[in-house]
Amino acid sequence: MLTVEELNNHIRNIPDFPIEGVVFKDITTLLTHPGALHDTVKHLEKACEEFEFDAIAAIESRGFIFGSVMAAIKGLPLVLIRKPGKLPGHTISEDYSLEYGTNTVEMHKNSLPAGSRVLIVDDLIATGGSAMAAVSLLRQDACTVAGAAFVVDLTFLGGESRLKENGIPYVKLIEVDSE
Questions:
Q1: In the CATH scheme, what is the code of domain 52-176?
Q2: What is d(CA 27, CA 11) in angstroms, rounded to the nearest whole number?
Q3: Of these residues, 62, 82, 94, 106, which one is catalytic?
Q4: Residue 79 and residue 77: Cα distance in Å, rounded?
Q5: Which is the catalytic residue, given 12, 20, 94, 99?
Q6: What SS3 class is residue 46?
Q7: Which pLDDT score, from 0 to 100, does residue 21 have?
Q8: Would residue 62 show up in a list of annotated catalytic residues for this protein?
Q9: How crowded is the C-beta side of 143, counted as CA atoms within 13 Å?
Q10: Alpha carbon distance 66, 123 (integer Å)
Q11: CA–centroid distance for 14 within its chain
């Protein structure tokens, strides 16, 4: 099994994407390395052992990769947190800010039974905007957020503090302290 450090070595930096001044952490190079997806999910599962959850919510789009595999392995429901207009049923939505603009995410209303304990999964946390939007959506839908799990944490953008301020425990595999 690849170590977390070895997994980190398979993530490449793409400067000035999606806009000038942003250094994008590209996980596609991680995903094309044989076994790296499996190993990343195994590390996430281990890191999440302290959380009690009975469903997983994955944030579009790269969170779908890790969240869906975790849900399949554990035999748990998977809720998709998506960009507007992508879900066919009745949805609830939440606006949020990110390091280079604003966005909105949606989920199906009543995706899970009230009181469900949900783990949020995404590939990366930056400012915490999309993660906190997911928290808000789940809470609006009468769910409890058991925690959040990320492959990469861009610590210099402060997402961790937003989660902590809102009582959301979280884990990450890889910490990036600067661009």
A1: 3.40.50.2020
A2: 5
A3: 62
A4: 7
A5: 99
A6: helix
A7: 86
A8: yes
A9: 27
A10: 7
A11: 20
